[in-house]
Each structure stands twice: as structure tokens, then as C-alpha cells.
Amino acid sequence: MIIYSKNIYLPNQVKKEGYLIINNGIIDDIVDSVNTNDYVDYSDYLIIPGFIDQHLHGWGTGSFVSSRDEKQLYEMKKHLPKAGVTSFLATTGAEPIDELIKGINSVGNVMNNQKEGSTLLGIHLEGPFVNESNKGMMNVNNFLKPSVDVMKKLVDSQNVMNSIKLMTMAIELEGAAEVIKYCNKNNIQISIGHSCATFETIKKLKELGVNGVTHMFSGMSGFHHRELGVAGSALYFDDLYCEFAKQTGITVKKEAFQIAYKLKGANRIIMTTDNAGISQIEKERYHYVRKQYFIPDGDKFIIRNEDGSEKVFDRTNYDDIKDLELSYIRSIQNLKNNVNPSVHDIIKMTSENSAKYIGVFDKKGSLEKGKDADILVVDKDFNLKVTYCMGRKCFEDV
Amino acid sequence: MIIYSKNIYLPNQVKKEGYLIINNGIIDDIVDSVNTNDYVDYSDYLIIPGFIDQHLHGWGTGSFVSSRDEKQLYEMKKHLPKAGVTSFLATTGAEPIDELIKGINSVGNVMNNQKEGSTLLGIHLEGPFVNESNKGMMNVNNFLKPSVDVMKKLVDSQNVMNSIKLMTMAIELEGAAEVIKYCNKNNIQISIGHSCATFETIKKLKELGVNGVTHMFSGMSGFHHRELGVAGSALYFDDLYCEFAKQTGITVKKEAFQIAYKLKGANRIIMTTDNAGISQIEKERYHYVRKQYFIPDGDKFIIRNEDGSEKVFDRTNYDDIKDLELSYIRSIQNLKNNVNPSVHDIIKMTSENSAKYIGVFDKKGSLEKGKDADILVVDKDFNLKVTYCMGRKCFEDV
Predict the structure, then answer these.
(1) Whole-model pTM?
(2) Residue B261 has pLDDT above 90, yes or no
């Protein structure tokens, strides 16, 4: 397959007239001209790398975090291209070890049989080594002290080598340093999250290979001028990556994001959604930021406001529920409005940085010869037109 | 008098060979050559404008905040040149209105009869319209709701026109908008301080003429990602000035200062000391940041640590007590180590910005023809060599 455009975003340059030659899901070549008329013409659209969502519990009709089984992952894979996400990490919460192992196995099985849709890159363990002090919406009963034995159990349970790509951890907990070292040896990136680590702890442990923070500002000790906490340290250390959950303006005000953007720059921000596939939950729960009750009822999903008013959704129907959480692409439209980044800077924050962070930059994160053909076609306002995952068209706005 | 140097810091340029001609306390001219050998040669030192301390309760053997009388002000004037401060605002706390009026009158009297030393520019009212929520070390019994009637009383008590130059205020309090407008009309700058104002309040009221914050980070609502508070708003709004109390590294960690410096830049930071002349207090008190008891006893001043250990000082002897608080010049040495600003940026933060903020830039804040001859001679490490106040040598390091 051949794709033509006047705006192909290669690393550090925009190809103003060019063709992407795609074979077997790979970008075989990027050339100035071809000897055929058999190409798709996206003349006036932008061609950019697909989004990578490294912090994603669920989306639409699939919620990995609710049951950790393969069916949920396939549902997510199917609908993520509609949000521009061409690859992702299935993200757990803090669960009992057996449930985490079940999740690791499901992820491995799906990695071995990707079928269609967005590519599952592996797993992001958000816990279990996190801190009650910053539990967010997680279940503290499943929180554990960092333990190399437990970590080894998880690593050994991988049915696909290095499927565990990322772990969110409270690095101030006793035993954290040993787990960080063990994870480093096993190519698992460590992000600080659900943590009240001090500046001094972070300064010390980042030398062991702690390179970023999870959902910046949320689930962490805030910035204070006498103790910078996790938020202040993430703002301070130029080299720490800041993962941001989607830009709704609710969990993190746009002005707070703007401050972080000004300090960190596009090179150290990683956009994610932290979406959960909320309609797929198994038990009723209360969302303290949204101030709403989420109630599952067979194929139905009910949102009840504090004033008693309700709205009922068909949770088997993607189109009925797709707007319950902000999609990756809409979050990027908000990002654009908030800080007006260049297209190259958007690519860094949505694809390149994450690919580097979780160790898949050899295949993902940029449009380059030899890399996977994960490609988005967008207009200048970042309305999504077409999504290719591994060279296969998985979404088209018609 | 004529001063010669190879490093005269004029606005936006360094004069590499030049002479400052000083007559009657004024910079009469700045020239390339003179027809006389009768000049002071500071060849290798830097010539910069004197420091302005707009937030100063006391220094050394004088403490305006303790008794608000003229004697204290003359003591401060005498010793401030040793710290590089060539002009200052006498700063109150929140006191009963009668006491504030007494202070305003003392300031006016001293302004009318400056004698020698650092120039008293007027008064900074830190209160009484401040918020119990962020009281810091102030006495809440003297806090008042903003009232134009009270403000009018203070303004009308001025025995020198426009001696009230600056007021620190909690702008979220009921009635604040009217007081801000009244102060604007009377050329009184408003700084937000001892305040828990929200982002929305600040966004709205800054349009009325609220242009900065008092002792950034201290005595204000902290930065949070869902409600930016005073600290977050000060970081966010590019045009708000941030006054910083001295860089001890205790009240505000240097890393927190570095974050603010990166965001605000030298154009919007005003260095002050917030010094109190602590040895001159009238009643015993506990300092919650230093975790020490301060005990006055006749001519003696005792500092008692929490473990009971004590140190006794002669509080009538400047040299015995001068190191009890960090001096302006030493704070600037710390500033230099913390963020490595250019000399011109140091001048902005120590002189120019404050002069503009409190409305004295026609006379102070830069070395220019026609301005007051407030001049410091420093070496490249900002060790103070000589201080001139209104053309008169008030300090020399011998």
C-alpha cells in the first residue's frame, strides 16, 4: 500500500510531498515519487505516528481492569483506533497477586494473537507497591510493601518475554530500592505514583533508574515550598518524564497543565488517558472527582448524580458509551487549545516519548523506514480521519 | 564626587570605562572621561544600583514592627547600608488602627528628616485586611475585614503625601474590591498576601490593579492542580510580580525558588528580606519555622532551642546581632548560587522591579542621569565593598 500526502511528519522535518510505502505492516520506504497511480491521496491532511496510550485500563466496551481477561482486551483493541490509539499498555490496578498473574497471562495470550485493531504492547502494573497515603480510587486491601519475591513471581509469570513494560510504584516504601534494581534488570520502567515520596528520596532513587511519574499531579504528594513532594520534584528535575492523564480540565486544571508544560516542555510529557472503560465495571462505585455513582445492571450502565437524576446506557453498544470518557484524540484537541504546541511537539507527547519510555522506540513512536506502520491521518485541527494499525486501516471517518 | 569603574551597570548595558558624576546626592552625569584626577577608582569592582527592600520590619538594632517609633527607624537607616540596602519601606504587621497610624506618622516624620543612612521611602502595610486562614506569625486579633472607611482613616493620617506605598491584603475577603479601587486612586500598590484567594478571584481582581504577591509561597494558599491558589496563580500569570523573602533555604527551599525563577524570570521577581530585627522584640515568642524561642531581657536577647540550650546576645550591639537574620547582601549571594542570574537580572530583582512596583522608578532602581546616587560597589561574588546612599558613603568594607 502507498500513502501520499503533502504533510508527512518525519522526525524533525515535514515532508512536503511524499509517499509512505507500506508492506506487511511495516513502513518499507519513504520516497519523493512513485511509478504508479495506485496510492491513497491524503493531500491536505497531516500524516503522523499513531498515539501510544501507556496508561489505559479500559476503553468503550472493554475494561481490562474489571476482569483482566482476553475478551476485554480484544474489545479495547477493536475500538481504540477510533480514538487514534494504535498501540497501548493494558493497565492493572492494585489487585491480588493471582489476579495480576491472570492479567499478565491474558496480555501475553493476546500479544501472541493480536488479530486486528490497536496493538497490545504489554502490561503496565499500577501497583501493588503503592502507598495508602495517596490511594486515589484504588483498593488499599491489595497494596503490598515492595518485595523482590513478589516481583519475581510476577516477572516469572510472563508468558511473553518482557510483557511487563512499566510499573507504577511508591518509591518511598521500604524495600523499594531493591525492587527498582530488579525491575531495571528485567527492562521494566518504574514510574513514581500513588506515592508521597519526598524530594530527597526521589533525588536519591532516580539514580537507580526511576525516570518519571504516573498521572502527574494526581495520586501524589503535592508541591510545597518546604517539601517539594512528588509533584514539585517532577516539576524540578528536568529529566523526569511526566505522564499526564487526559486533559479534561477536571482532574487537572488547564492552568496547572500549562505550568507543567512551561517547565517540562514537550520532551518530557507523555499523554495518556487513564481511561477505565467505566461502563464495564462489575460493582457499583462512587467517583469522587466527578461526584457521580456508576451502577452496572446487566447490559445497562447507569450514572446517578448526587441529586438522584440518572442516565441509562447500553453498555454493549460502543456508540452509546463512547463519550462517557474523554477519548485520546479529543484529549489532544484540548491539549492543542491549552498550550498550542507544534505538531512535532504533539507527536513527542503522544507517541515518541512513550515509545522511548517503555522501550519500544525501535518499532513505534515515529514515522521511519523499518518501523511499524501505525499511522494517523488528521486535519489541522486534529480531527481524526483515518487510522492505520500495522498498515491495516482500522478506522475511517466517513 | 566622581566614581570611576570599568564595570558600571547602566540599564541594558555595561559601561566598560566610565565616570559617575555625583552632585547633591544625584547622578549628575555619566561620562567617558573627565578633566581631573580627583575621582574614586573602583577599577575592578562592579558598580550597581543600591538594593531596595520593600518588605522590611526591622534590621539589626532597629525594629519598626515592635514599637513603630522613629528611634527604631533611625537605627534601621543607620545599619541597612552595611547590607547593601540604600532604600526601604518600613513594614508593619497587622496592628490596631491606632498603632498603624502611629507608625504612619513616625514614617512621615523620618521621611521629612532623613538624616543619614538608607533612605526611608514610605510604609508597607502588611495587614490589617488579611486572612486568618493564612495568618503566619501575625496576631489574628488585629485582622479586619477590608473597609474603605478604615483605609481612608489610614490614608488621611499620612503626614507625608503618598507615604503609604504598598499594602499586603487578602483579596478574597468581603469588601476587598472597593478597597483595591480606593488604594489605586491613592497610588497604593496592592500585593496579595496572608490570603487563600482562589484562581478565579485573582483572575478577576487583578483587572482592578492587583499586581503581585507578598513573600511568595509563604502565608498563601499553595499550588494545587484543581485549585491553583495564590501560589499557583502567581506562577501562572506572567504579569504578576512575586516578592520573595530572603533566600535562606529554610522558609522556601532553593528548588522551589528555582521553579518560580524558571517560570517568572528576573522581570517579575522582587527580592526582599522580610527581616524583623528579631533581637528587638518586646515579648517572648516562638518561631515555628526556626523552632526556637526568642526571649528579650533588658539589653539582652536570648535564643532558646527546643532542647533547652541557649545563646545570649547584646541587643544594643549591631555586630553582636547582625547575623541573627540573613542580610540582604548575603541573600543575594545565595540567589546567585541558586539560579546563577546575570548581573543585570540581579539588578532587576533587587532594585529596578521594586522601584517600578512601589512607584519610585523616577528616582530609584537604576543608574541613570538625574536619579538618586544610591550606589553599591561589589566584587564579582557580590561581596559588598562600599555603599553610597544619596551620594554619601554610608559603608565601606575595610
Answers:
(1) 0.95
(2) yes
